[in-house]
């Protein structure tokens, strides 16, 4: 049943001594008036009702921050909610059902949760690609975070690197390096020999020239 019809029915039940036609007319005029008033409030930011509502919300927020009575009511309400949740097994069963559903969904190949997360990440990544300003802010934040972390944990990082390097087998590492850059390493050795020999000859010649 539509809300309009529900209001007419309730109005008719409460007004048994008036004809249905009169009830329908009154309800129609009442609803039309409410709709017109809401449209006026929505269209006018300075409407009196909107200003009163804003003031009432502001006063309530102020009272919630400063009133001891409201603070105590909030504590009592939270205590009642916690007690109710602890006493009613329905909520625990509901939590267990939700937990089981989440685990089952994640285990599925066509997981709705994973699909939603993947879609959100893709949307986030596309948004970052389209926003250079946000990219610069994230890069600055990331570099600052890394620098701060490295500075704070430098001793632990140094110890970790030292332990990892000590755990390496020298022969195994040498063999892997030879396999990866063997030709380049041989080239470096040859060049080093040539450069060293050339430098030695030049230094010897300069020494003889200076001695003369």
If you had to describe this structure to a student in words, what would you say it looks like?
It is a single chain. The protein has helices at 3-14, 20-43, 48-66, 68-87, 89-107, 112-129, 132-152, 154-167, 170-211. The protein is mostly helical. Among the domains are: 131-167; 171-212. The termini are far apart. The mean pLDDT is 78.
Report the C-alpha radius of gyration, rounded: 40 Å
Question: What is the rounded distance between the termini?
Answer: 119 Å
Question: Helix coverage percent of residues?
Answer: over 70%
In N-to-C order, the SSE pattern is: HHHHHHHHH
**Runs with pLDDT <50, length 5+?**
none
Estimated share of beta-strand residues = under 5%
Largest sheet, if any? none
SSE class: mainly alpha
- Output the number of helix runs: 9
What is the count of β-strands? Answer: 0
Task: Tell me the overall shape.
Answer: elongated
Oligomer: single chain
- The whole-number mean of residue pLDDT values reads 78
Per-chain topology:
Layout: H1 3-14, H2 20-43, H3 48-66, H4 68-87, H5 89-107, H6 112-129, H7 132-152, H8 154-167, H9 170-211
Helix pairs in contact: 1-2
Brief sketch in words of this structure:
The chain is an all-alpha fold.
Which keywords apply here?
212 residues; 89% helix; mainly alpha; elongated
């Amino acid at each position: 049943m539509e809300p309009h019809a529900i209001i007419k029915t309730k109005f008719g039940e409460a007004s048994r001594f008036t004809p249905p036609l009169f009830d329908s007319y009154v309800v129609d005029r009442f609803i039309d008036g409410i709709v017109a008033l809401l449209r006026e409030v929505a269209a006018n930011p300075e409407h009196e009702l909107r200003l009163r509502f804003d003031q009432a919300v502001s006063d309530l927020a102020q009272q919630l921050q400063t009133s001891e009575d409201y603070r105590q009511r909030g504590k009592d309400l939270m205590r009642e909610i916690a007690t109710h949740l602890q006493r009613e097994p329905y909520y625990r069963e509901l939590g267990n059902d939700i937990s089981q559903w989440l685990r089952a969904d994640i285990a599925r190949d066509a997981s709705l949760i994973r699909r939603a997360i993947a879609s959100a990440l893709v949307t986030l990544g596309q948004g970052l690609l389209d926003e250079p300003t946000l990219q610069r802010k994230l890069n600055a934040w990331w570099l600052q975070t890394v620098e701060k972390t490295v500075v704070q944990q430098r001793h632990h990082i140094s110890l970790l690197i030292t332990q990892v390097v000590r755990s390496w087998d020298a022969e195994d590492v040498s063999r892997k390096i030879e396999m990866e850059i063997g030709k380049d390493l041989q080239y470096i050795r040859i060049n080093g020999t040539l450069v060293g020999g050339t430098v030695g000859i030049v230094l010897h010649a300069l020494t003889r020239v200076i001695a003369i």
